[in-house]
Amino acid sequence: MDFEVERGEVFGLLGPNGAGKTTTVEILEGYRKRDGGSVEVLGTDPALAGSGWREQIGVVLQSSAMYETLTAAESLRLFAGYYSSPRPVDDVVELIGLRDQRDQVVRRLSGGQRRRLDLGLALVGDPELIFLDEPTTGFDPHARRQAWETLRSLRSLGKTIVLTTHYLDEAERLADRVAVLRHGEVVAVGPPADLIGAGPSTEIRYRENGREVVLETDSPTRVLHELTAKAIAENRELEGLVVRRPSLEEVYLTLTEEQPE
């Protein structure tokens, strides 16, 4: 496995269960020993990193325990005390969208609000690099979009984010680049738009003489030009014209499907 994450980008790790996403992230975070190879995160081998390096890392796990009787603000203030130069608690409260819940005890927060507090606990140390493991799992659609806005605001602060997610639309909207894993190997890496462009053919559908015509092509611009030129020459419309490019989900399924032996 070989990949690089550029400073200031959102980098997505995609892959089915068992592909190696969590193992990879835990090695990068310094929580798991690797069997071989070399790893460098913020210029340091995570396996040899000290407390100064760890202050530059923020981690949001899939699930985490909190002090249920503390308020959201008290929780952030407690964690801020672990860092030499924390971000102001009031700034973090605003960033994660918990202004109205700042004085509410953790046990009374909704699932989405607790997840936002999870993110706040990772941000209060003002890290350079943030690892987000399935950050919106269990969110309803509205909460997911609120979380996306929060993540976009982190990018505007210049933070580097490594994101693992099962939601392909999430990766497509948030990530500058993604790496697709299968059986512990990187099978594709690049911007989502580039992976989509290298994926299955574009599908063009239209109706002609009462029947549906379906074309698959790697040159949709040329084919559309030929079809429209012919229709104009014959003074008719291209009825039911639909052009559908492959989605990131379709590219992902193609890349991760089991190959026949």
Would you write up a description of this structure?
It is built from 10 helices and 9 strands. The protein is an alpha/beta fold and 261 residues long. The chain has 2 domains: 10-195, P-loop containing nucleotide triphosphate hydrolases (Rossmann fold); 201-245. The strands form 2 sheets. It has a 6-stranded mixed β-sheet, sandwiched between helices. It has a 3-stranded antiparallel β-sheet with strand order 8-7-9. The longest helix is centred in the middle third of the chain and has 16 residues, at 141-156. The model has no long low-confidence stretch (mean pLDDT 87).
Give the count of helical stretches: 10
From N to C, what is the helix and strand string?
EHHEHHHEHEHEEHEEHEH
Contiguous low-pLDDT stretches (5 residues minimum) are: none
Number of domains: 2
- Spatial gap, N to C terminus: 22 Å
